[in-house]
User: Fold this.
Amino acid sequence: MKVYTVLFLLICLCCSPCVMAKTITVGDHSTSSAHYSGMHGQFKYSSAEFVLYDYELKDTGAISAMALYKCSGDTSADLDSVHIYVKESDTGIGKEVSLSGYTEVFSGVLAGSAGKGWVNLTFSAPFAYSGNKNLVILIIRKNGRIHAKGYPAFAVSFSNTKAYQAAYFLSDSDPWKGSPAQSPQNQYAQYRPYLQLTID
Assistant:
């Protein structure tokens, strides 16, 4: 009887689909900066919007986390009020910071830490990526606490293409406040975060 039980369990294990999470790294460490991460510690409001092309990702599935490579910073500089949005798109970056078409996948705090290394941000719900379009990520910090020092800088990749892959925004005043409300104006850049995506 025990032999049959063991055989049954082995058959179940062999026949069950094995789903392994994959890590996709996009870009390289060209330089480091706080400007292009969307989480600048010296400003109350900041954003970064950037495109990851389908030919760079070469995969499909549920994206469950994103990691940025931190180059500097200390434990005293938590980055609060961080929001991450994701969408698929055939196009690139618009002139205005707009939430149109985006799905929010993260809302929380990036805890301060000493040293260098990957900082993982787990999504509140996985984002289903089809692989048929580009992936566009928008990171916004809204009304965050200002740090005079110790705030992190992140590794960024440089692109020498004419088509801008990224844009950023920095301000100490609420860019969405006013009547009528105005959307922040993107500053186009040739740098975007060096990152990793976890796809299940």
